[in-house]
Amino acid sequence: MPQSFSDPLHGITLKAILEQLYEHYGWEELSNRIRINCFFENPSINSSLKFLRKTPWARTKVEELYIDLVKSRLT
Protein backbone atom coordinates (compact mmCIF):
# COMPACT_ATOMS: atom_id res chain seq x y z
CA MET A 1 0.00 0.00 0.00
CA PRO A 2 1.44 3.43 -0.91
CA GLN A 3 2.41 5.92 1.77
CA SER A 4 -0.41 8.19 2.87
CA PHE A 5 -0.09 11.60 1.23
CA SER A 6 -2.08 13.16 4.04
CA ASP A 7 0.70 12.32 6.53
CA PRO A 8 4.18 12.10 4.97
CA LEU A 9 5.67 11.36 8.41
CA HIS A 10 3.61 8.19 8.88
CA GLY A 11 5.86 5.17 9.31
CA ILE A 12 9.16 7.02 9.01
CA THR A 13 11.62 7.31 11.89
CA LEU A 14 13.35 10.48 12.98
CA LYS A 15 16.65 8.84 12.05
CA ALA A 16 15.44 8.17 8.50
CA ILE A 17 14.20 11.76 8.21
CA LEU A 18 17.53 13.13 9.38
CA GLU A 19 19.52 10.83 7.09
CA GLN A 20 17.48 11.89 4.05
CA LEU A 21 17.83 15.57 4.91
CA TYR A 22 21.59 15.15 5.40
CA GLU A 23 21.93 13.32 2.06
CA HIS A 24 19.98 16.02 0.27
CA TYR A 25 21.30 19.19 1.95
CA GLY A 26 24.47 18.29 3.88
CA TRP A 27 25.27 19.70 7.33
CA GLU A 28 26.17 23.20 6.16
CA GLU A 29 22.89 23.78 4.34
CA LEU A 30 20.91 22.17 7.16
CA SER A 31 22.51 24.57 9.63
CA ASN A 32 21.61 27.47 7.32
CA ARG A 33 17.99 26.36 7.04
CA ILE A 34 17.51 25.40 10.70
CA ARG A 35 19.72 27.32 13.13
CA ILE A 36 20.47 24.72 15.78
CA ASN A 37 23.93 23.90 17.11
CA CYS A 38 23.70 20.16 16.50
CA PHE A 39 23.85 20.95 12.74
CA PHE A 40 26.54 23.60 13.14
CA GLU A 41 29.10 22.39 15.69
CA ASN A 42 30.57 18.90 15.17
CA PRO A 43 27.43 17.57 13.47
CA SER A 44 26.59 13.89 13.39
CA ILE A 45 23.44 11.83 13.03
CA ASN A 46 23.69 10.50 16.60
CA SER A 47 24.25 13.87 18.30
CA SER A 48 21.47 15.42 16.24
CA LEU A 49 19.07 12.60 17.14
CA LYS A 50 19.79 13.06 20.86
CA PHE A 51 19.08 16.78 20.64
CA LEU A 52 15.99 16.47 18.44
CA ARG A 53 14.43 13.79 20.65
CA LYS A 54 14.71 16.15 23.66
CA THR A 55 13.72 19.36 21.89
CA PRO A 56 10.19 19.38 20.42
CA TRP A 57 10.46 22.78 18.68
CA ALA A 58 13.61 21.71 16.82
CA ARG A 59 12.14 18.36 15.87
CA THR A 60 9.09 20.16 14.46
CA LYS A 61 11.34 22.33 12.28
CA VAL A 62 13.20 19.26 11.00
CA GLU A 63 9.92 17.47 10.24
CA GLU A 64 8.59 20.54 8.41
CA LEU A 65 11.74 20.72 6.28
CA TYR A 66 11.39 17.01 5.50
CA ILE A 67 7.74 17.48 4.46
CA ASP A 68 8.79 20.35 2.17
CA LEU A 69 11.46 18.09 0.63
CA VAL A 70 8.96 15.27 0.04
CA LYS A 71 6.46 17.67 -1.52
CA SER A 72 9.12 19.15 -3.82
CA ARG A 73 10.04 15.67 -5.04
CA LEU A 74 6.41 14.95 -5.91
CA THR A 75 6.06 17.99 -8.16
**Number of separate strands:** 0
Would you identify the regions where 5 or more consecutive residues have pLDDT less than 50?
A: none
Number of distinct helices: 4
Strand content: under 5%
Report the span from N to C terminus.
Answer: 21 Å
CATH fold-type name: Transcription Termination Factor Rho, Rna-binding Domain, Chain A, Domain 1
The coarse silhouette is globular
Structural class: mainly alpha
Number of domains: 1
Q: Would you tell me the overall average pLDDT?
A: 91
Question: CATH architecture, please?
Answer: Orthogonal Bundle
The helix content, as a percent range, equals over 70%
CATH superfamily: SAP domain
Using only CA atoms, what is the Rg?
Answer: 12 Å
Please give the largest β-sheet: none
CATH class: Mainly Alpha
SSE string:
HHHH
